[in-house]
Amino acid sequence: MLKYQQIAAEIEKYIEQNAMQQGDKLPVLEALMAQFQVSKSTITKALELLEQKGVIFQLRGSGIFVRRLKRTGYISLLSNQGFKRDLEDFTITAEVLELDVRKPTEEAAHSLNIELAHDVYYVKRVRYINGQTLCLEESYYNKAIVTYLNKEIAADSIFRYIKEALGLKMGFSDVYLRVGMLNEEEAKHLGLEAGSPKLCAESIFHLTNGLPFDFSRVTYNYQQSQFFLQGNGDFS
Amino acid sequence: MLKYQQIAAEIEKYIEQNAMQQGDKLPVLEALMAQFQVSKSTITKALELLEQKGVIFQLRGSGIFVRRLKRTGYISLLSNQGFKRDLEDFTITAEVLELDVRKPTEEAAHSLNIELAHDVYYVKRVRYINGQTLCLEESYYNKAIVTYLNKEIAADSIFRYIKEALGLKMGFSDVYLRVGMLNEEEAKHLGLEAGSPKLCAESIFHLTNGLPFDFSRVTYNYQQSQFFLQGNGDFS
Fold first, then answer.
1. Which residues pair with B59 in a beta bridge?
2. Distance CA B98, CA B83 (A)
3. Looking at the domain assignment, is residue A234 inside a domain?
4. HTH gntR-type domain spans which residues (chains A, B) (predicted)?
5. A85 and A62 in one domain?
6. Which pLDDT tens digit goes with each residue over A161-215?
7. Which of A50, A107, A172 to mutate to test the interface with B (most CBs of B within 10 A)?
8. ipTM of the assembly?
9. Same structural domain for residues B119 and B30?
């Protein structure tokens, strides 16, 4: 973790511990520099990160303010493994149905910018929230980047492993959503009736250097799923 | 429009006109400064804006690269009025069903941080894409901020009016999503069967100073709706 990321985490903890609410003002830049004993550029980068994460907003000439969601218990649509953070009171588990090395589908190859002859790790798992099905997930990892995976890793957090064990840096993601009706197979895995509503999220995850390393399709159990998103900047 | 916003728009146009693809490298900072005849700080702010918008990604020590979605025809979930930009080949129209000044619901009052006795503009409209229903929208605007609205404005773009005529600056938004089944009234407005799948997006839009000015509930026609989202930074 880089210095500014560490400072960002500490400021976030400070907001939590002081139960600060949306609109509450944080100390000014100079006070934060003194408090954390770091340079202006480190604080500035930490604040930018927090702004991007939707934890604060900055108002030129007025200061730095806390940003807080009005509702709790929602899942972040933009974090893949972030269930634990967003749903702190819930227990998330995963059951790995399949894990093997294979050739990608056309869609996966296109999404990952690789040839059809290229190897991918394919992972299919069901994730549970407090023992109820949360989602069915199919992922294709470019094996040239994610060089090793096994069922033990997949039963826990693949993204944490990719970051901590493989040392890869996650950059940005594109997510495509559509709403539809569950087919027989999806319904079976989620324990619902075929024809029930579903939210399907297809995501392409990239490293900081722009290389796509994971294409995933997640089908959510609509009864368990409430999502939040935070937008920054002009939304018109 | 501020200088850096203008430069950002010009860089975006440059990417379009040169049909640049994801991973294509943009000129270095110094070259952009020379090309647009502006300071380093202006270019830096323009690039930050483009990074936030998902148009570029920056790789420390390597340069500035173009970011492009793999798929077209999707609607941005984080832009309220952005249908025109994201769906350039489509025609979006709106039919205003109701528009009046009233007291907010409890949910709207809570979302807008106002009292129940406070006035809001209530707007209910159906939006169409190429003549097909796209969504049913109900919005509550804090009348102390959005001081005037009428049906003519609501039939066009309320957000453009808010920005251009009222001069308000849009800051950030929180969006809550859930999937469910259409009730009778929603189904009637969308021309679908009751019980069909729906995506419901409830959003709170804030000014740059953090004041919430609009709470909206949008119910999408699942047959017409495909959405995209762009995430930045670490998504684990």
1. B63
2. 22
3. no
4. 1-69
5. no
6. 999 999 999 888 999 999 999 999 999 999 999 999 999 999 999 999 999 999 9
7. A172
8. 0.86
9. no
